[in-house]
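wait is this the right file?? whatever heres the structure
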């Protein structure tokens, strides 16, 4: 391990033992897997950059005392691949700063770091049941005046205080950054939501419009659901010359489930499966990808029926 990782692992172990925490308890508090923590303490592996951020956040003020710190912290909602490259994260941080400046943000990003630093861990989320999520999605469509068998173009949905800005239509970024985010890095991120005021009432959503429109429809809904559900902001920071982020798996699941359920209502999928429609036919009807249709069918427990798998008891 490098000097930074060694200091981090020592500081985490020192605090864990002082608080009488087991590795499993630390895993639950920090969001870093038990196996990763065990390897770190045995000196058999290094934490990745996302784990470093989680552990630094768990350490709180003890991180400063150990000579460990965040640099260039940003708080956003961030839809990207788990192993997104540091260079891509850095460009998105640049985009976030630009959006705040161009849209008259009334928030100091550094103040969020000070507030979050005092929170010595993560708030545990209680997962919503599938029934709750289905009801939330159904009400959303009802409020929009869209029937359960009607296609919803989520790119036309307007939410008070939220501005959705396609990457290729923003004048905020320089051409080189825009081309990189829409070119070599396009496969690594889908969207980023940036808070513009302290109460999180105003937002700018940067949408990767180089993706297929079917993907954009689910992506923008994911971001809107993060905002509408009041999810915690992702922390993106530079640690030891690389960039990483935190994320909450429960909140990511809920936002994606709701986006899928909003585009593909339960009643419509039940009816489509009963009619023996193919995934491609359902996707075409609702303007989504086949992958999203398959996700909904599987989550509704209808995969066997969709594939026409017959079942019977054998005669002994």
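ok assuming it is, sequence goes like this
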């Amino acid at each position: 391990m490098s000097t930074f990782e060694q200091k981090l692992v020592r500081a985490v172990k020192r605090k864990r033992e002082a608080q009488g925490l087991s590795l499993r308890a630390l895993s639950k508090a920090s969001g870093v897997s038990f196996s990763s923590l065990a390897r770190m303490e045995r000196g058999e592996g290094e934490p990745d950059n996302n784990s470093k951020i989680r552990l630094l956040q768990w350490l709180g003020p003890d991180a400063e005392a150990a000579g460990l710190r965040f640099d260039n912290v940003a708080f956003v909602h961030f839809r990207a691949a788990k192993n997104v490259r540091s260079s891509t994260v850095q460009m998105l941080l640049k985009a976030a700063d630009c959006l705040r400046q161009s849209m008259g943000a009334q928030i100091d990003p550094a103040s969020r770091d000070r507030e979050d630093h005092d929170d010595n861990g993560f708030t545990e989320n209680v997962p919503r049941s599938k029934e709750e999520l289905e009801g939330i999605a159904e009400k959303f469509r009802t409020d929009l005046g869209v029937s359960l068998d009607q296609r919803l173009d989520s790119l036309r949905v307007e939410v008070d205080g939220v501005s959705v800005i396609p990457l290729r239509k923003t004048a905020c970024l320089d051409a080189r950054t825009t081309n990189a985010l829409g070119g070599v890095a396009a496969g690594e991120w889908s969207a980023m939501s940036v808070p513009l005021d302290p109460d999180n009432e105003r937002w700018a959503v940067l949408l990767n419009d180089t993706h297929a429109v079917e993907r954009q429809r689910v992506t923008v809904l994911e971001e809107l659901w993060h905002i509408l559900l009041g999810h915690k902001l992702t922390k993106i920071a530079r640690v030891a010359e690389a960039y990483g982020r935190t994320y909450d798996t429960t909140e990511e699941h809920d936002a994606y489930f709701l986006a899928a359920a909003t585009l593909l209502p339960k009643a419509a999928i039940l009816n489509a499966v009963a009619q023996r429609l193919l995934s491609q036919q359902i996707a075409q009807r609702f303007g989504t990808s086949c992958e999203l249709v398959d996700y909904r069918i599987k989550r509704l427990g209808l995969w066997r029926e969709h594939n026409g798998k017959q079942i019977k008891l054998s005669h002994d």
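The mean pLDDT is 86. so i think its the right one actually
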